Amino acid sequence: MALSSSHHPQHDGQTEIANRFLETMLRAYMSEDRACWVEWIYLLEFAYNTHISPSTSSSLFQLLLGFQPESPLNRLAKMTRAQEAQAKYYNRGRKEFPELKPGDLVLVNPHSLAWKEGKGKGVKLVQRWIGSFEVIKKVNPKVYHLRMSDRYPGSLVFNIEHLKPYIDSPPELKEHTKLPEMQLEIPSDEFEVEEIVGHKYQRGKIQYLVRWTGYGPQFDSWASTADLKNAPEIVRNYRRSEGL
């Protein structure tokens, strides 16, 4: 072992060079609080040990361990690229839901709505999409009001996550076997009115701002008194509270 003292680099020149190198690196990261050097030393040590030496064309890690450890920054970059690749794969087959207008036809997914055919019957063989149903109006960019028969006793207001635009068959395929209609049971807690949160008058008629059960404030929509015929008590309570 070669004993050395400060300011005498001739005793152990390599150590003094390494120390000066680290001191220079620390100064580049130090703020006025020089006591924070300990927060940086482990990162600078890693940088120093992975630095390629011009004289050996290798890093200290390569000379001591036989390989170059991967930098956390490289791992972060790889994770970012992997996430981008996953997002690209996920979005490859996805299309933006087109804006619908009154009169357009859509299909409804009974599975995402937890509808079932008849009491006690299995749900796995229920058609994947049922319909078509006519769009009456757009409530907001993500919610549409549909025209449906009395066989569907639930709310007629649907989020686009349960809908798919209906594409008619080509003329040469018009003749096809008609599937039997299903008598669906719709859970009573689907698309119910949770509360009325406001009102306005349009052409002399009152419109209620409705919050639907299971949907947040971003899906609040305006509905007429006729649209709320299945929620008379909620309407009465709101009118009483507002003195209407």
Care to give the gist of this entry?
This protein is 27% helix and 21% strand. It is an alpha+beta fold.
Folded structure, characterized:
The chain has 244 residues and is an alpha+beta fold. It has three domains: 49 residues, no CATH class; 93 residues, SH3 type barrels, CATH 2.30.30.140; 50 residues, OB fold (Dihydrolipoamide Acetyltransferase, E2P), CATH 2.40.50.40. It has a five-stranded antiparallel sheet, with no helix packed on it. A three-stranded antiparallel sheet has the order 8-9-10, with helices on one face. Helix 1 packs across helix 2. About 3% of the residues have low confidence.
Itemize the secondary structure elements and their pairings.
Elements: H1 13-29, H2 38-50, H3 60-65, H4 72-91, E1 105-108, E2 116-117, E3 130-140, E4 143-147, E5 157-159, E6 163-165, E7 184-185, E8 193-202, E9 205-212, E10 221-224, H5 232-242
Antiparallel strand pairs: 1-3, 1-6, 2-7, 3-4, 4-5, 8-9, 9-10
Question: Which features would summarize this protein structure in a list?
Answer:
single chain; 244 residues; alpha+beta; SH3 type barrels; OB fold (Dihydrolipoamide Acetyltransferase, E2P); 3 domains; three-stranded antiparallel sheet; 5 helices; 27% helix
